[in-house]
TrEMBL record:
SUPFAM superfamilies: S-adenosyl-L-methionine-dependent methyltransferases (SSF53335). This is Uncharacterized protein AlNc14C27G2622. Gene3D superfamilies: Vaccinia Virus protein VP39. The gene is AlNc14C27G2622. It comes from Albugo laibachii Nc14. InterPro entries: Methyltransf_16 (IPR019410), SAM-dependent_MTases_sf (IPR029063). It comes from the Eukaryota. The lineage of its organism: Eukaryota, Sar, Stramenopiles, Oomycota, Peronosporomycetes.
Amino acid sequence: MSEANWRQCAEYEVKEVSVGMHNVFVYQMCELSLDAMFAMLSEMDTEQTEISGTRIWTGSLALSHYLLTHADILRGTCTLELGAGTGMCSIVAKKLGAGMCIATDGDDQVVQILKENVRLNEESVHAHILSWGDAKSHNQLLAQFPGLKSNSTLILAADVLYKAMLIPLLLDSVTKIFDDASGAKQSHLFLLCHVPRAQVSHDMVENALKASRFEYSVQSIRDIHDINLEEMLKLEECPKEEYLQTKIYRITAISGDSVDSGVLFSGTKEYFSSPCTR
């Protein structure tokens, strides 16, 4: 089987996930044949393929439950999800009363699946492509959704840092969005739910936040008493050991001038010493 054909062999099933009283439906890739699996892994080794949008990840479920217990932060906001994958967090945010919701991903095929997930849930969530660190892609997003320049912007990202090289790209995109939004920067909020993967540790994330002069607070998901851990653990795709390592970062402002992403690339070589696999 050629590497180009494994996607054509992939079959999807609808997965139902409960978040409190809300049910979310997403398409999830079924098990591939052995040949298709090897073809996919071979393609991933060339860093040309992402599979993040083909299943639910621990971070997406954890952030969705966090939003359930902090629904007040959604009211009156323009919500933008980065690296949305299935779009689960955006769909939950809309169900909980968020204003305009935009779910973005850098993979065209993932965005198509995302659109189908939005249709399944009958929610008014916009699905759009966005490549981190790409000025043209960023400007196209702002042109299509001028509401992102509103006084209250909420950015969501869950389980997106599974390659070390993504850290500066993500923070560069967040900086651009915060800088483009009107009003005081203190009115903007970035919620990052991180699960350590491929040696992308919490220390690496926190060092990058400090280097970018972001102000943040951090809390382990297991220490947030309002979250129903028992309900989250019902999903077999999201193992308990991952939940126990999951943290929520509330990034509320930028102190002074942000550091250009190029500085992060050149100054933190350790970011690129770990495997880029998920």
